[in-house]
Amino acid sequence: EAKRNDKHGWRAYDPSMTDQRTRESILADLLEHAVEAGQLGVHYQPIVDLATGRTVGVEALARWQHPDFGFLPPSEFVPIAERSNLIHAIGMHVLAEAAGQVRAWQARQHTDPLQLSVNLSPRQLLKHDIVTDVVAVLERTGLSPAHLTLEITETAIVDTERAAPILARFRALGVRIAIDDFGTGYSSLQYLLGLPIDGLKIDRAFVTQLDSTTRGAAVAEAVVRLGQILGLDTVAEGIESPAQVAELQLLGCTSGQGYLFSPPRPAAEIEDSLNLIPPQTVG
Ligand code: C2E
Ligand code: MG
Ligand code: MG
Ligand code: MG
């Protein structure tokens, strides 16, 4: 197979390109059966209140364990799922499993109910009946809409005219919307004026800069401040050092997540950080 090259017309056969395409189509086929086959799971990463150190929420992250190919990261399969339209089935599977899990954890809490954050890709957001689909899962699992945050990227709201009415319907239901990877997209800041957004997730790229160069720290600080001035919840992503926590606390950033607190892990393995009432023991 050949591919057109800008300057020189047809370029020679490129094995790496073909391998990549073959790999993608193989993975897309495998992914189609992954949900039914029970290969798709969910890991949870605690979201910590930076003022108190308490876990106030969890982000649900899709995990794919294939019996032959092993663990495949979301950075590889989510884009494939997005292109092949499988993202709807996968996204709903993650939402349903996570909502049921968080509901079960909430029943074992003395404190404010745990919040659930779920990622929603651009294609999912623009699916015509996405609001109905999400509501159906909430009703089935009993999770309150007020305890759900949908994380969307700036790419998803580039088409502001299409995104606005969908976000407004979620808002009317009490579901919260956060901008994921804030500051890394190609989007303008104009959407912050008009769209019903509740929070910004400060991308790890900025958090990493907090304790390195002064220039990096200035940009990181400006991103946190912008969220604060707009009255939005600010969640710092990818916190890896106590120095970053100290900086973020000084800036007044609301909450954060990162390997410093915990990587994403299976449900049973993060229960320790949730301060739950022990499960009922019989006899
Ligand atoms: P994201 O939503 O921005 O999720 C945060 C990513 O950062 C996760 O990668 C998490 O494991 C990683 N992370 C968290 N703390 C740290 C840290 O301290 N250091 C470093 N280096 N990384 C950290 P993960 O799980 O591989 O997911 C990658 C991306 O795949 C997600 O980025 C999200 O965009 C997408 N994704 C994952 N699950 C889903 C899903 O169920 N639906 C959709 N639509 N997208 C998903
Ligand atoms: Mg996210
Ligand atoms: Mg993110
Ligand atoms: Mg990210």
TrEMBL record:
Coiled coil: none
Residues of the full protein shown: 460 to 742 of 742
Natural source organism: Catenuloplanes niger
Location of the EAL domain: 24-278
Segment forming the signal sequence: none
Protein name in UniProt: Diguanylate cyclase (GGDEF)-like protein
